Amino acid sequence: MSALVLALPDRRRIARLAIPLGVVITSLLVSLLLIAISGRSVPEAIEAFLDGAFGTAFAFGASVNRAVALSMVGLGFILAFRANLTNVGGEGQIAVGGIAATAVALHGHVADLPLGLAVLLPILAGTLAGAAWGGIAGLLKVRFGTNEVISTLLLGFIALLMVYWSVQSTALLRQPQTSSATLPESLPIPPLTRLPGLTPDPESPLHVGLIICLLAAVATAVVLQRSTFGLRLRAIGLNELAARRAGMPGGLLLMAALAIAGGFGGLAGAIMLQGEQYYLKTGFSSGYGFDGLVVGLLSRGSAIGVLAGALFFGFLRSGGISMEIMAGVPAALTLVIQGLIVIAVAGSVILIEKLDKEPR
Amino acid sequence: MEETLAIFIASTLRLAMPLILAASGELVSERAGVLNLSLEGMMLTAAFFGALGSWATGNPVLGICCAVIAALAVATVQALLSVHLRANQLVVGIGFNILALGATTLLYRIIFGGLSREEIPGLPKLDIPGLSDLPFIGTAFLQQSVFVYVGLAFVGLIWLMLRYTAFGLAVRAVGDEPRSADKAGIPVLRVRYLAILITGFMAGLAGSFLSIADINTFTENMTNGAGYLALAGVIFGGWNIGRTIGACLLFGAATALQFQLPAMGINVPTAFLLMLPYLLALLAVAGVVGRLEPPTALTLPFQRGK
Predict the structure, then answer these.
(1) Contact between A189 and A102 (Cβ < 8 Å)
(2) Cα(B244)–Cα(B58) distance, rounded to whole angstroms?
(3) What is the pLDDT of residue B277?
(4) What are the C-alpha distances in Å from A216 to residues A75, A77, B45?
(5) Sign of the dihedral through C-alpha A89, A262, A214, A252
(6) Which of B92, B109, B271 sits opposite A164 (nearest CB)?
(7) Does pLDDT of A1 surpass 60?
(8) Residue A2 — very low, low, confident or very high, per pLDDT cuts 50/70/90?
(9) Is A46 contained in some domain?
(10) Contact B299/A149, CB-based, under 8 Å?
(11) Does the pLDDT value for residue B293 go beyond 80?
(12) What is the pLDDT of residue B75?
């Protein structure tokens, strides 16, 4: 009898999957209802959505690239969250990563460097810039006890305005002004500093960022599950005082956690720049940081969860854009859907927690 | 010169007003331990429904009522999720901001269509015969939209409430020591709920100020970060209402300077002026400008016996 019970899959595990899934499906149904109410054809909208998300090699690649950037931010988020640190600054970390990668990629002879350095140096610069940006929040936390939610949020806005500044001023990254119509953008980065494509298909924008992302996901999972560092992060997250008493370098760990989270954001920024956008402009990070935070939080600390969530949001955004172009459904509706999903999933977390507490 | 200064003061006040309204409401929530990233979304929702109400009824006061009701609706759901269901306040806030941007853009296009810039009935400007025409004081302080003076009265009420009422005391207790407050018999969840509703009410005023008193039209994403700026104002104000208002005035002045400085031939990068509020707030929380402590339980959900 007891063997039979053991053989049954754990109810909690099912619930953990079923609840978010149910919420997502419900929100999608609500969205279809909204489309119908707004007087558009539902089948046409669905077709346009699927076409834009998966339909062509271009659509599929664009969705996956989007997911790559979201995953990077999400992975950084869960790593810091393990130490009970909430990194709200993904948006800004992407922004500084983008600025640094642009600056390096456009610098003199970087494009001529051999051995892949032309691609790697800007990526490295972006990552380091993001890490520094996250590290500032860490330093403030350790040195002055500043709440990281507040500092990363403020640092985020500062970084967004730094992008604005650097593309407004020709002394910084703005392209030379040849006429009054010159846009406030940087020059496009040289082709040799761009991320190589992943498939021989010239239609597909899919780039090697995907591989970097998968490696990062594995690394994050291993660090969190199997390493001393991961264990220490967890310890300091559960009880900072006890962890310090046990001899752990508390301040250093907290700073490292936020710097790594920031580094992931910066890496995402560099990948977005070198993989797809190729030049810096205002609004470069366009909400990826906040979406990444949501992905990280909803994944409940699992790297696979981050990848799944990022893919979902990546396809949702791409499909939404296509719905606007092909079926006349305003892209704003995708924002509505996404907002509803975020709110609903966040609200459903308590159901999972309740199940966790039930006696077995 | 004097005239320029008077105009500068007047535009500072006008630009700071939505921030002051939103920040003083948000202050109540934060003192009770709830951070509403959704402030931006509440304001945007209010700006839209304020414009819609005023346009549909032709009466700006009814428009403001619509705005307040809409913002209160957002606040109610925010409270339900983050207080009762203990959902993560930041995620709920981000969700609402995405939702508000999407929903207002969508409704705006459906109702007003495309890119109409339809004028919306607004509130009159103050005109006290004799006083409003005074050379300096009149231009600087007494020619604002009447909304400014009504709004300031509400801010005064919040100040009185936080400082002198039992509810104000309960708010602070719940934000700093929810467990002790609970033991002392204060209904922690109810106090937080009410605090968020007050934030919603004020965000409703702030949002409708933008669309009804300031510009008299709605544009997509018209708050454009004003909610976040108000959050920075609360932080830079060290969770103290007087200083928060001061911070918002300073932010308003920085925005006003953007337009004033080029006119005076002084060249300061706009980006720097835009960045200044966030930079100041960061320096403030970092302890450079005196020691600031956020409420101890900020962003932490409360659950009895845990």
Answers:
(1) yes
(2) 34
(3) 85
(4) 8, 13, 39
(5) negative
(6) B271
(7) no
(8) very low
(9) yes
(10) yes
(11) no
(12) 95
Q: How many CA atoms lie within 13 A of A35 on its CB side?
A: 28
User: Which residue in the set B35, B92, B294 is minimally distant from A343, CB to CB?
Assistant: B92
Q: Tell me the per-residue pLDDT of B19-60, one tens digit each, with 9 for 90 and over.
A: 999 999 999 999 999 999 999 999 999 999 999 998 888 888
CB contact at 8 A, B300 and B32: no
Q: What is the DSSP string of B13-43?
A: HHHHHHHHHHHHHHHHHHHTT---TTHHHHH
Mean pLDDT of A255-279: 93
What is the rounded distance in angstroms from the CA atom of residue A341 to the CA atom of residue A335? 10
For residue A309, the enclosing domain spans 24-175+182-357
Token output for B121 = 């009935």
The residue extents of the domains of chain B are 2-285
What's phi and psi for A185, nearest 5 deg? -140, 165
The two structure tokens encoding residue A32? 């279809």
Q: What is the Cα–Cα distance from B88 to A334, expressed in whole angstroms?
A: 22
Q: In the numeric block, which tokens belong to residue A261?
A: 């989270």
Encode burial over A112-131: b for 16+ CB neighbours within 10 A, e otherwise: eeeeeebbebbbbbbbbbbb
Interface test mutation site (partner B, options A31, A38, A161, A173, max chain B beta carbons within 10 A) = A161
Residues facing B145 on adjacent strands:
B125
- Residue A6's pLDDT is 46
The conformation of residue A192, written as its DSSP 8-state character, comes to G
Residues of B in contact with A350 (CB under 8 A): 85-87
Q: What is the CATH architecture assignment of B2-285?
A: Orthogonal Bundle (1.10)
**What is the spatial distance between Cα B102 and Cα B110, in angstroms, rounded to a whole number?**
12
- Tell whether A18 is covered by a domain: no
Q: What is the pLDDT of residue B275?
A: 86
Q: Is there a contact between B299 and A86 if contact means CB atoms under 8 Å apart? A: yes
Residue A12 belongs to a domain: no
Kindly state the average pLDDT of the residues B266-277.
82
CATH number at residue A106: 1.10.3470
Q: Return left, alpha or beta for B144; rule: phi > 0 is left, psi -120 to 50 is alpha, else beta.
A: beta
Burial class (CB in 10 A: 0-12, 13-18, 19+), B170: buried
Stretch A315-328: mean pLDDT: 82
Q: How confident is the model at residue A359 (pLDDT cuts 50, 70, 90)?
A: low
Per-residue pLDDT at A238: 84
A-proximal residues of B, 92-111, CB under 8 Å: 92, 94-103, 105-106, 109-110
CA A327 to each of CA A31, A104, A334, A344: distance values in angstroms, whole numbers, following the listed order: 14, 41, 13, 26
Q: What is the mean pLDDT of residues B186-201?
A: 94
Q: Which helix (H) or strand (E) holds A291?
A: helix A288-298
Chosen from A154, A169, A323, A338 to mutate, greatest number of chain B CBs within 10 A:
A154
User: Is B85 in Cβ contact with A86 (below 8 Å)?
Assistant: no
How far apart (Å, rounded) are the C-alpha atoms in residues A111 and A259?
A: 28
Please state the domain count of chain A: 1
Query: Does the pLDDT value for residue B235 go beyond 80?
Result: yes
Tokens 């790297």 — which residue?
A: A303
